[in-house]
Give the backbone structure.
Amino acid sequence: MTDVTRILNAIEQGDAHAADELLPLIYEELRLLAAQKMSRERPGQTLQATALVHEAYIRLVGAEGKDWKGRTHFFAAAAEAMRRILIENARRKRRLKRGGGQDRVEMQASDLAIEGPSDDLIALDEALSKLAQEEPKVADLVKMRYFAGLTLEQSAEILGITRRTADRYWAYARAWLHKEIAKGDTAGAQ
């Protein structure tokens, strides 16, 4: 049993001090995953990798009913937490972009120098939710790869599948998501 698994088990048993031991062991790994994810975001992103790690960690350790089955399960949960944080951030920015309850002011296009939130990220999240209903394990692979920045090997290990199966899932997910997002783009353009 690894130290991380031992500490996760202690947290699950209610040991209040175990959470203090966990962060130093996993911090660099989580920060690397967050930095990889943030490097793919648009320039000017207000959320930093460190903030993403801290928010994800707080959600994971503070969550009720946590039942981690070890290190790999914890990192899968971390990938999901990071995904949710990034989606919430994109939705918040989109709300602000759409007015956020403020009065309308006429402006010229040249007055605006602000890049909007990633509508692509929100479209991906919506498509990923549909994929999760049909193929949960495939959707989990996408979350780990895209939102946590894990490699195919790392994702395969967490999901308990072979690298070859992970390759097939990844190819399927990319095609499925591309088709689903394109379908949403054409529906929104009409």
Summary: Confidence is low (pLDDT under 50) at residues 103-117.
